[in-house]
Each structure stands twice: as structure tokens, then as C-alpha cells.
Amino acid sequence: MSARAARNPSASSSEALLSIGQVLARLANEFPELTNSKLRFLEEQGLVRPSRTRSGYRKFSAADVERVRVVLSMQRDHYLPLKVIRTYLADLDAGKDPAVPGSGAGDAVQSIIPVARRLGRDDVIAEAGATPHLFSDAVSASLIVPAESYTDDTVHVLRALVELQRSGIEPRHLRGFRAAAERELALIESALMPISRRGDAASRAKAQELSGEIARHFETVRGSLIRQALGRFSL
Known about the structure:
The chain has helices at residues 3-7, 20-27, 36-44, 62-78, 82-93, 121-128, 132-140, 152-166, 175-196, 201-230; strands at 51-52, 58-59. By secondary structure, it is mostly helical.
């Protein structure tokens, strides 16, 4: 979708408008966990502005649907909090050309966010420059979860494993990474328990946003510890 389309989410009079159910059906393959409540929450947060019929029913234009796709993609693929996404969309609406948050891109944005790719096992192996044996070892070490299709994140992980293997570090040496990730997940779930218990759509969305923020803080602490440890090599 172009930045211009994002800045003009209202539909033309001749454009077919979609109900919430039709929007969910259209986005089901990319975002199977999307619900009516989540769509309403995005509207409450000012991230999408569907039109209303005289009876009060929400109607979504094609630009509205793409805007929803952008928000969900940014949350899922870049772990961005809603306030960052809101600022980005507000800049687009104001006629600016902001870089996509988290992308590191400084050029003007011609399209907001590409739809996340879904790759087969052989495609992941080929793009990562890996071997089927390394991929299998990564699955055995629980570094990659077997699935029918994979995202670019799996490619990045496998590329890292290729480089680590060149230094003599095999996937089996990293088995503890999965356990560490599970411990971090348990900490996040514990921290968000008071919010998650409420059960309403707004609370679930808030918990999802906070989980990404906590995960980023974990990465900051972990990276600092590694850099401190590496500093010993320069002594």
C-alpha cells in the first residue's frame, strides 16, 4: 500500500465497503488471532477510522483494511508498541514521509510495510545458505519450531547458525537458549497476569503491547551482559 493511501483512509463513494466479518475473513490467513474485539480496540486507539452506517455499523474501506494490516504487521514483525505505531501513522496522515520504525530505513516510505513472507523449509534453507542437516539440527535443539511455513525471522536465525557453525558452534551447543527463552516468557506472563486476568479486549491488547516492551528490555540487559563479558578479551 502506498503512503498516500494510508493518509486517506476514507473510502470513495463508489468503493465497496466491508463489514467487520468481511475484514476478519480477508485477513484471516495472515492474522488468524484477529478478532472483532481487537478491531474495535484498534479503532478506540485511533489507529483505524472506519466509517459508520446510519444504523451505527462499522464499514471498512480497502484503505482501512490495509491500515489494519500495517498495524498488525508492525506489532507482529517489529514488536512495536502502539504509541510508536500511532506516531508513525500520524506522521503519514500529516503528509510526512517517516521511515518505518524498526526498519532502520532513512529513505522516504513508498509503501508502509510489506506483508510478511511465508516460506517453505527448502526456501528457508536456500536463503540462509544452510544445509538440510543444519536445519534439522536446529529443530532438534529447539532453536527452530517445525511448521508448515516459516517467516524471515527463521531465515535470520538459520543464517546466524550458519555463521556460528563456521566458528565451531553447533545447534546442540545452544540447547539452553530455548530453556532461557521459556524462563523469560514465564517472567513476562507473571508480570502481565494482573492485566491478562481482566479478560476484556482492551486488556488483552495492552498485555500484548507490554509483552513486546518487556522482551525488548530483556534484550537490552542480555546484550549488555554479553558485551561486558566480551570486554574481558581486551584485557
